[in-house]
Structures are given as structure tokens and as C-alpha cells.
Amino acid sequence: IVESKNGYPILVEYEYDIEEVRKMKISEIQIFDKSADVNSFKIKGESMWLDKSTRVGLFNSISIEKNAGKTHTILWYDAVKYVIPIPDALPMLNEIEMYALNCYNVTQSHIAAVRSLQTIEEIENYDYTVGYPVKLSFPG
Description:
alpha+beta, 50% helix
């Protein structure tokens, strides 16, 4: 806030420097990476996401069920029960893991690109929503 020549306060818009703009854009990328725009897939038309630790736990549990001779596994998500044939469940988890890895690589490449940009305008205009793999959809 500065004073006008008449002594009245005037609000002056703050201008961010290039490093502040860069940090804000990287933060936007990281928020986008954690959003359902990236972290989701569908089973029977229902959108969901399984974080890394859940995917690893499910893979281990389903492998144990398979070795025990079970033919189906149960996935609970948002209080909904999904019965999935074990021969489908393990490849499904592998696909989700590959999708997550590919998304991670895209996110990191966007962050690297923003770090290499030289002007505020380039950073502000950078589209970090492109390049992500097509979302997965499973019949369930």
C-alpha cells in the first residue's frame, strides 16, 4: 500500500519474481498430480484410486489368496464391494501400477520443464495438464 499524491492509501498490485512464479507453478503441478484428474481409474464405471501402499498390500493379499486356491478376491472401495476374479485382479493391479509410474514420470517432466523456463510469461503459460496416459477402465 502506498499513498497517492493527495495522501490517500492506494493498493499496489504485488508483482511476483520469476522464482516465486516458478514455485507457484510447480505447486500447481503437484496439486494436479494428486487430483482425480490424474489419480483415478474406473471399475464398472465407478471412479476410484488406490494409493501405492494399498496397491502393494492388495497385490500381496491377492497373491496369497491365489496360492491358497481361491478363484475370486474382494475389493472394498467407498463401502462398495467388488468381487473380482483373481486371474483378472493381479494384471489389473499391474496396469494400475504402470499407469501410476507413467503419471509420475509425466509430472516430473513437467516440473523439470518449468524449472528450465526463462521467463515469467513462459512459466505462467505452461500447460502441465498434457501428456498424461489415458485413464484405465476395468469392467470389474
